UniProtKB/TrEMBL annotation:
Cell location: Membrane
Keyword Transmembrane applies: yes
Keywords: Membrane, Transmembrane, Transmembrane helix
Main localization (coarse): membrane
Record-level Gene Ontology MF annotations: mitochondrion targeting sequence binding; protein transmembrane transporter activity
Membrane topology: Multi-pass membrane protein
Recorded superkingdom: Eukaryota
Upper classification of the organism: Eukaryota, Viridiplantae, Streptophyta, Embryophyta, Tracheophyta
Gene Ontology BP terms: protein insertion into mitochondrial inner membrane
Protein name: Outer envelope pore protein 16-4, chloroplastic
Entry GO CC: TIM22 mitochondrial import inner membrane insertion complex
Species assigned in the record: Citrus sinensis
Amino acid sequence: MEEELIDAVPCSSLAVDAILRIGTAGAIWGLCAGPQLARKRGLSGITRASFVAKSIGKYGFQCGLVAGVFSSTRCGIQRYRKQNDWVNALIAGAVTGAAIAAGTRRWTQVIGVAGIVSAFSAAADYSRTN
């Protein structure tokens, strides 16, 4: 039943679902972490409120971006290969890790983050299916 449902739903819909769910979780994380970081920096009043609001947006956007790249890549690979196994998560994790680290413009970090995210993604997918 799950295999038929995955084939029927477009990858863009799965990506939007992941962005909304994980982006919301990231925004909640920013809501929890923002006040603590503002207190450490000694902010108060309007600057503190502004910092917390920016933290909520930043964490929500970053988490949503990661979820969107991962889910759309995994779905596309799964449809291309016509197999639902851990290799899809491995490749999608590598692409997502490289996309995260691309802002640093240092190849050692891009390769390292891609490898770490890829390994964790494959391990999570393997443990989920077995």
